[in-house]
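hiii so um. not sure if this is the right channel but i have a protein structure encoded as tokens and i wanna go backwards to a sequence. like what aa goes where. can anyone help
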């Protein structure tokens, strides 16, 4: 008796293996005839029958596959297509949704669910299906186009944000690749960014740089500031009026430091070390401390401004704690760092010890200077130097004051 059972089991194992080989060689019908207990072979045979428009056989094989395994998403997808061709829209919709739920990696099912959801304006389901497609990489372009459509409405953006809460790996790539077609497109994306920030999943700074760049280059200053303010949170200051985060409270916060186009952006490297210590032992007031080797001119800190045309005054407090005052300079350019220089001056005007207050006057031209780039640079002095800055601000329409020794 034991020998008979063993032989029977051996025959089953052989048939299962042969069926698996046939299925891998795209011979689903042969696989199913070799081993009728294979749900995968039945489902693929149903798919093949559907391609030949043999709807009755496709349906029968799909039902058999589901009988063999209730987790057969491919068979459900076939049933959905059979029902659709037979004019049974409700049955088709139910079957394809079940297929997508059972097999989130089934790209064909997810794509069909996505398209139907967009047609019926079922935005939550559309976002879920697009998420699945982007996670698997199946027809990612279709999913991205769908997400572009979703962000055009408030409900669509809310559905999108619910997917972002899971922090999918595709999210930063989506934001980086997004190129606004027009101002409305950029505004919609901005609203999505604000919504994601409120949900605690704000995209990284480099991922949203193209959107902010588009708005700034097209003179959409109000929209740019509104989106930045909505997503960046409680950072003091307005780039249209002066310095953002002049007291460095935002920079000292890991959550607020350097997000978006405004506020301080610092670049630490082998030639400069940057920190935000307390101003003194009795204060919780942070300052910006920059320690430079003096071996190379580098940008230690920068900030984008949107100052109106006219005369302005940069005022700040500075302490030179080590080295020469010649080790650090301000520079203000129209546009980016390669634009017209409209201000260039040393950060410290004297070598006196302790904290001093400095004022530098500059003029923003009436045209061609919508945005400005303020940079604090180290100088190549071949000796180390360290400074601390606090309470940096800009006042508009400044009175004329004596030149403090601007660098020519």
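sure thing!! here u go:
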């Amino acid at each position: 008796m034991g020998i008979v059972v063993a032989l029977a089991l051996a025959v089953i194992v052989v048939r299962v293996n042969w069926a698996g080989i046939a299925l891998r060689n795209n011979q689903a019908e042969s696989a199913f005839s070799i081993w009728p207990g294979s749900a995968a072979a039945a489902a693929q045979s149903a798919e093949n029958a559907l391609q030949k428009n043999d709807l009755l056989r496709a349906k029968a094989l799909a039902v058999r596959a589901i009988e063999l395994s209730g987790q057969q998403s491919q068979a459900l997808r076939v049933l959905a297509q059979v029902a659709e061709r037979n004019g049974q829209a409700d049955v088709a919709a139910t079957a394809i949704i079940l297929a997508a739920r059972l097999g989130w990696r089934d790209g064909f099912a997810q794509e069909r669910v996505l398209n139907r959801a967009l047609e019926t304006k079922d935005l939550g389901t559309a976002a879920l299906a697009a998420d699945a497609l982007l996670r698997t990489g199946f027809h990612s372009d279709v999913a991205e186009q769908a997400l572009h459509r979703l962000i055009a409405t408030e409900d669509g953006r809310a559905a999108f944000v619910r997917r972002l809460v899971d922090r999918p790996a595709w999210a930063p790539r989506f934001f980086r690749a997004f190129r606004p077609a027009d101002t409305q497109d950029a505004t919609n994306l901005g609203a999505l960014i604000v919504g994601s920030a409120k949900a605690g999943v704000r995209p990284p700074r480099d991922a949203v740089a193209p959107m902010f760049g588009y708005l700034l280059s097209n003179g959409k200053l109000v929209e740019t500031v509104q989106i930045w303010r909505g997503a960046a949170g409680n950072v003091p200051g307005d780039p249209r009026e002066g310095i953002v985060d002049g007291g460095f409270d935002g920079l000292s916060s890991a959550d607020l430091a350097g997000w978006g186009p405004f506020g301080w952006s610092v670049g630490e490297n082998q030639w400069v070390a940057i920190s935000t210590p307390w101003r003194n032992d009795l204060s919780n007031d942070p300052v910006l401390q920059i320690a430079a080797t003096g071996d190379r001119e580098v940008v230690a800190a920068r900030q984008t401004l949107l100052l109106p045309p006219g005369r302005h005054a940069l005022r700040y407090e500075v302490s030179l704690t080590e080295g020469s005052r010649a080790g650090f300079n301000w520079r203000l350019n129209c546009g980016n760092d390669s634009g017209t220089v409209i201000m260039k001056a040393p950060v410290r005007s004297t070598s006196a010890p302790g904290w001093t207050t400095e004022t530098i006057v500059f003029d923003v031209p009436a045209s061609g200077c919508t945005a400005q780039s303020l940079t604090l640079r180290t100088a190549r002095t071949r000796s180390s130097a360290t400074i601390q800055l606090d309470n940096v601000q800009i006042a508009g329409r400044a009175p004329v004051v004596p030149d403090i020794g601007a660098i020519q």
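oh and The longest strand covers residues 310-322.
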